[in-house]
Every structure is written in C-alpha cells, then in structure tokens.
Design a protein that fits this description.
The structure is a homodimer of 211-residue chains. By secondary structure, chain A is an alpha/beta fold. Helices cover 35% and strands 21% of the residues of chain A. Chain A has an eight-stranded mixed β-sheet. Chains A and B meet through β8, α7 and β9 of A and β8, α7 and β9 of B. Chains A, B: Keywords: Oxidoreductase.
Chain lengths: 211, 211
C-alpha cells in the first residue's frame, strides 16, 4: 500500500504531506475535526483524502504530526489498532515555559515514551526539519537531511524510503534511543531560532551534516 | 594579549592552531613531551612557540586539545594557575568501548565536569568540528559552524572572536549546560563516521545549521 496517514493538519502535517506527495505517495489526513481535515486535504490536491482521528488508519505508515502530549494521547487511544503499523514520531518535547530544557527526563526521549504506549513500530523522523523547509523541499538550495532512528529495521527502512523518494537525504542514525540526541540538539536549534542574536534564523534553517 | 595556548599536539591541536593562526593570533603549544611540542611548533611556523604542560600558560585563552580524562587531570593539576583564564573544552566524552553512550551521566556534560575542577572560565567550542575540516578551514566549500557555549560572557565572546577571525561562523548557543546537547549530537555524528553505511562520512564532515 502506498498511502501515508498523517494525523494533524498544522504546518508540520502540511510539510510532511508535501514530501510524501513529492515521493509519489497518497496521503490520508486525519484530524479531530473532520471538516478541517477535509478542507486541508482539498487544498493539497486529489491524492489526499481525509478522515477523523480514531478511525483506522489506511496507511502502513502513520505520522503523528501533533505535539508530544497529543501524540501520547492518540497512540494510547488507538491501542492495538496500531499493531504492525510504522508510527512516525516527529515531536520535540521542549519545555516551552522555560525554553531551557526538555519535558522528558535526561536519558530518555519522547520517541521512547511514545513507543512504550503503542504496539506499533515507532520511528523518529522529521523532528529536525522545520515545516517551511519541508514544503520547499530544500534549504538554501541544499538537500534536506532527514535524521531517522528506530528499533525495527523494516519500519526504519520504510521511512527512509519515504524520505529519499521525497527528495531528502535519509540518515538512519541507529536505534530509537538515538532520539535522545536528535531531540536534544533540535531543542538547541529551536532556542537559536527564538534568539534575536541570530537574525537569519527564523524557524527556517536546516540541520545538515555536510560531507 | 594575542596568544592562544593550546595544550596537546594531536590532530585537533593542529586544527585549532590552524584556525588561530588564520585569525592572526600567536600560538603557544604545550605538551607533556617538550620535544614533541617543539617539533610540532617548528612545523607550524614562526608564530608558534612551545613548552611543557605544567608551565604557566601565556595565553588568556587556553585550549585543552586533549581527551576528556586528560583534560580533567590537566585543569586539576594547574589549580588556581588557571584563574581568570578562558579554558576551552573541546572534548567529546564518548564511551569508545560501547560506542553507544557518553561516559558522562545524562543531564550533565564533560564541559560542566571540567568547569567544576577549575577556577577558569570554561567555554565549550570546537567539539563538533573534525580536525581535517579545521585545517582546511571549510567543508565542501562551505564555512564551518563553530558552536560555542559558556557561562561567562567575556570568555564566550573571546572564543567567538577567535572563531570568527579564523574564518568560521561562531554560534554562541547559550550557557555551558548547552554542552549537553553539543556533546550528545556530536557523539551521534561520530557514530555515523564509523558506520560503513555512510560511505562519504570519514571523520571529514561538518555539522551546520544552513540558513
């Protein structure tokens, strides 16, 4: 099956949908508000369908394009309905009150916490790419790096294929626990976007390994 | 004073010396083996002097271009002689036996552990730049990003000035505790260099925020 289910209709959902469509996949958008999902789906074109969160996802890959707390709630509510699915966690569990740490404890990660709540195969991806760059498909003319971590080889390979077909460079960095480093560094990158010292950083940069 | 003291004579010491010389600074190389320091200094040119670890550093900036354990030993041995100095910690405290974690506990960093041992102002820098890129002064034709973290504004500014004058882009990311994220992510980058899947990654890449 060549369908990617994306839960959420925000900027990250749109960005990942753009890469999935560029990869030749069909997209199913699910939102709590079915009307919102239908409207965004219509905007994104004929290869996008819509539905309501809670209905069985059509895609083998289910991208949780929602904040960390919502992602935990959604996988918990789905329960065994996600067994056998590849669940893509894109979250950055930043403490936005202090903007000085993550809300997950040192030595763990949002991805690992989500994985503990679902029988699906959780893969970390898209957490270091901002929405604008995903929609554009590049950063300053350079290919986007897509960092991917996961414990299930088939699931990580499926996400790497999506990333690659979508015009990005997939970098499968290792086991799901490597999400600790991916989330930690993207938190740091996010603090720079919010820091007026960096005039050119406006939630539009791309994290890359050049070489 | 326009002198940078570098402790160590390995590849990273040579790389940082290259950037310091490009920045118009003079370099003092200290090594346990004074003959080794003299030989490398002679190789690097007339703006480089040499000496033995333990002698009072001439530079206001002292770069510890040695592994983590050695860095801790050196600052401990110097004691109060480093008071008022800017101490640059470049270490990546990777557990090289497992290559699966750091040797520092989650929620801390090598930089913070070193800072606890010295009255000097510890600044994290150069831990995400490999020696070859520092010597070349670029990565695939792109400017090198120099991530910098520190608690003392004057000390971080002095290191940022060195980095900038050396032809790199300084990115002062925040307090010294942000070294946790810098060390964590560079550990991940190092695992990729050692991973045969990534054929083009051979301890020669550059970590960049593009934008």
């Amino acid at each position: 099956m060549n369908i990617i289910t994306i839960v959420g209709t925000g900027n990250m959902a749109r960005g990942i949908a753009a890469r999935a469509l560029a990869a030749g996949r069909k997209v199913e958008l699910l939102n709590r508000d079915a009307g919102k999902a239908a409207a965004v789906a219509a905007e994104l074109g004929s290869n996008v369908t819509s539905g309501t969160v809670g209905q069985a996802p059509t895609g083998d890959i289910v991208v949780l394009a929602v904040p960390f707390d919502a992602a935990k709630e959604i996988v918990s509510a789905y329960g065994d309905a996600l067994a056998g699915k590849t669940i893509v966690d894109i979250t950055n569990p930043v403490n936005f009150e202090t903007f000085d740490s993550l809300v997950v404890a040192p030595g763990t990660s949002a991805a690992e916490e989500i994985a503990a709540l679902t029988p699906g195969n959780v893969v970390k991806a898209f957490n270091t790419t901002f929405a604008g760059a995903l929609i554009a498909g590049e950063t300053e003319g350079q290919i986007l790096d897509g960092f991917i971590a996961g414990d299930n080889a088939e699931a990580t390979a499926a996400v790497a294929s999506l990333v690659s077909d979508g015009g990005m460079r997939p970098l499968v960095v290792g086991a799901l626990k490597r999400s600790r480093e991916l989330e930690g560094f993207q938190f740091l990158v996010m603090t720079l976007q919010a820091n007026p010292t960096f005039e050119t950083f406006n939630w539009n940069t791309g994290l890359k390994i050049v070489g």
